[in-house]
Write a structure and sequence with these properties.
Helix content is about 65%, strand content about 5%. With about 290 residues, the chain is an all-alpha fold. A hairpin with a 2-residue loop joins strand 1 and strand 2 (about 285).
Length: about 290
C-alpha cells in the first residue's frame, strides 16, 4: 500500500521533471525522487505519501516506552481471553455433536471476549503502536482515528474507525474510480472500494489462520455494505445503540466461526477426512460435524 502511494504521488512529478529538463535543453534540475524520504515514509504511521510532514522538535522516550508497555499488556490480556473464554469452549470441536442450539450458545458466549479483543486491538494497534512509532520518528500528525464510538451510521463508523486505511482507500481507489466512472456511478465506486477492502482484510486473516474461510469477506462486503444504506443519514442516539449491537453480534459471530473452523481443522486435518465425511484421526473415527456440514 505504501509503495503504491509512493508511485502514485511521484509519477506526475517525474513526468513533469522530465518535461522541464527537456524544455531547458539538459540543464540541471532538482531530482524528483529522494530515497531518504521514501525510507522515512516506510516507517511513519501513514499511507499517504508527501515529501514533507509536520515534525516534532524532540522525542519523548517516556511516552514511547509507556505505549510499548501498553501494547505488551494488551497482548497478554488478549492471550488470557483466549485461554479463559475461547479454548475451553472450542478445543473439543469435531469430537462432540454440534447442533444449532450449541452453535447459537457458542456464538453468544463469544460476544464478550470478542468485544474485549476488539477494544484491545484498537487500543494496542491504532493508539499505542502508532503513537509510539510516530513519537520515535517525530511524526506530528496523530490523527489515526476519530470518535467512531459515537457514530450513528456505518458510513461514519468506517470513515472514523481507521483513518489511515480510509484515507488510502479514498485517495487512491475511490477518487480514481469516481473520476473514471463519473458522479452517476458513485455508489458503484463505493461498492468496488468496499470489496477491495474486504479482500485485503480476508487476505490478512488467511495469512494468520493459514486457511481460506471467507466469513469476514461475506460479512464485510455483504452485510457491511447493506448497513451503510440502512443507517444512511441517521443521527439519533438509538442508531448508535443499533450500531454497537450490530458490531457486538458480528464480532461474536466472527470469533465463533473462525475459532470453530480452526479447531475443526486442528482436530481433524483435511487429509484425515474420508469421502463419507468422517474424520479418521488418532486411531478413532469421528463424524465431521463442523460448519462445513452444519
Amino acid at each position: 500500500m505504501k509503495s503504491h502511494a509512493f508511485v502514485r504521488e511521484k509519477i506526475p512529478v517525474v513526468i513533469q521533471s522530465t518535461s522541464t529538463k527537456a524544455a531547458k535543453c539538459g540543464e540541471d534540475v532538482d531530482p524528483p525522487l529522494d530515497f531518504g524520504r521514501y525510507i522515512y515514509f516506510q516507517f511513519i504511521p501513514t499511507l499517504i505519501y508527501r515529501d514533507d510532514y509536520p515534525r516534532n522538535k524532540k522525542i519523548r522516550w517516556n511516552f514511547v516506552l509507556s505505549n510499548f508497555a501498553n501494547v505488551a499488556g494488551a497482548v497478554m490480556y488478549a492471550y488470557y481471553i483466549f485461554i479463559r473464554f475461547c479454548i475451553p469452549v472450542f478445543r473439543n470441536f469435531n469430537h462432540i455433536h454440534v447442533n444449532p442450539k450449541t452453535f447459537v450458545s457458542s456464538m453468544f458466549s463469544c460476544i464478550l471476549p470478542g468485544a474485549l479483543l476488539f477494544v484491545m486491538v484498537f487500543f494496542a494497534l491504532l493508539h499505542c503502536w502508532m503513537n509510539a512509532f510516530a513519537e520515535m520518528l517525530r511524526f506530528a500528525d496523530r490523527m489515526f482515528y476519530r470518535d467512531w464510538w459515537n457514530s450513528t451510521n456505518f458510513s461514519n463508523y468506517y470513515r472514523t474507525w481507521n483513518v489511515i486505511v480510509h484515507d488510502w482507500l479514498y485517495s487512491y481507489i475511490y477518487k480514481d474510480l469516481y473520476t473514471f466512472w463519473g458522479a452517476k456511478n458513485r455508489h458503484t465506486a463505493m461498492m468496488v472500494t468496499f470489496i477491495l477492502s474486504a479482500l485485503f482484510h480476508e487476505y490478512i486473516f488467511c495469512c494468520m489462520f493459514r486457511f481460506f474461510y471467507p466469513v469476514l469477506f461475506v460479512m464485510f462486503a455483504g452485510m457491511g455494505v447493506c448497513l451503510i444504506f440502512v443507517t444512511q443519514q441517521k443521527s439519533s442516539p438509538p442508531w448508535n445503540v443499533l450500531l454497537w449491537t450490530s458490531l457486538l453480534l458480528g464480532i461474536g459471530m466472527l470469533m465463533c466461526l473462525y475459532t470453530m473452523e480452526y479447531y475443526a481443522r486442528f482436530n481433524c486435518p483435511p487429509s484425515a477426512v474420508s469421502f463419507s465425511g468422517r474424520c479418521q484421526s488418532g486411531g478413532q473415527i469421528f463424524v465431521l460435524k463442523g460448519l462445513r456440514s452444519f
